[in-house]
Amino acid sequence: MARRLALAVCLPVLGLASSQVSSRGTFSDIQSSICNTVTLPGLCKNHESELVENSRYNLHDARSCRGQECCSASSCYALPLSGFQCDERRGPTTCVGAHFFPPSGGRCRCKYGSCSVAGICPPSQQTLYEEHDVTPVRPEDFTKQFALLGLGFATFLSLATMLMVRFRRRRLVRALDEALASPLESDHEAYPEE
After folding, report:
1. What angle do CA 87, 49, 40 make, to 5 degrees?
2. Considering its fold, how many domains does the chain have in total?
3. pLDDT top residue among 113 and 3
4. Are residues 152 and 76 part of one domain?
5. How confident is the model at residue 84 (pLDDT cuts 50, 70, 90)?
6. Which of 40, 76, 115, 189 has the fewest CB atoms below 10 angstroms from its CB?
7. Signal peptide: which range, if any (predicted)?
8. Exposure on the CB side of residue 44, measured as CA atoms within 13 A
């Protein structure tokens, strides 16, 4: 059942993507882009093993982000909305170990070099001087973003419920009008006015 559901979700995506294979890339490129976003059991099995073999870090586990490259007091999420990524003040980072579904947090890892004690990553080019007046970057706080996301979801759910109730009520009124009108019409046919 789960495989059929995964195939039902993947086939339209792969159908759209396969029409662009000749001009934009191969099937493995498309598969890796899908599997980087959402992990599907049937489609992403080989992709996960390649990630584990080919990289130093398992990109699907935040606990595996250890060492000097990882900022220990950081967090990020793989949600497509802005505001859930690593703080820009950290410098060039990638989010390691975050899942889109089910949503789980990850850690920020420096792209170039190691994370400082202040939680800042070095830029791509090394500078010849040290920065002495560096304020530490606080751990990311996503309370506002999750509150807005929850409020938006609750608003959507209440509007959908309101529209569904309105639609059902309208159908019920029509059915009652038809039920009340049909006996009156049959009475007029049975006893015509003189």
Report:
1. 75
2. 3
3. 113
4. no
5. confident
6. 189
7. 1-19
8. 16
Do 151 and 134 fall into the same domain?
no
The lowest-confidence range among 26-30, 95-99, 104-108, 177-181 is 26-30
With respect to residue 192, please indicate whether it lies within any of the assigned structural domains.
no
SS (HEC) of the chain: CHHHHHHHHHHHHHHHHHCCHHHHCCHHHHHHHHHHHCCCCCCCHHHHHHHHHHCCCCCCCHHHCCCCCEEEEEEECCCCCCCCCCCHHHCCEEEECCECCCCECEEEEECCCCCCCCCCCCCCCCCCCCCCCCCCCCCCCCHHHHHHHHHHHHHHHHHHHHHHHHHHHHHHHHHHHHHHHHHHHHHHHHCCCC
Domain housing 41: 2-54
Residues 61 and 134 in one domain: yes
Q: With 0.70 as the threshold, say if the pTM is over it.
A: no
- Residues 147, 135, single domain; the answer is no
Domain shared by 131 and 71, yes or no:
yes
Whole-number Å distance between alpha carbons of 28 and 155: 39
Whether 191 maps to a domain, the answer reads: no
Q: Is residue 30 part of a domain?
A: yes
Domain match, 136 and 147 both: no
- Reply yes or no on whether the pLDDT at 28 is more than 90: no
Within a 10 A sphere around the Cβ of 40, how many other Cβ atoms?
20
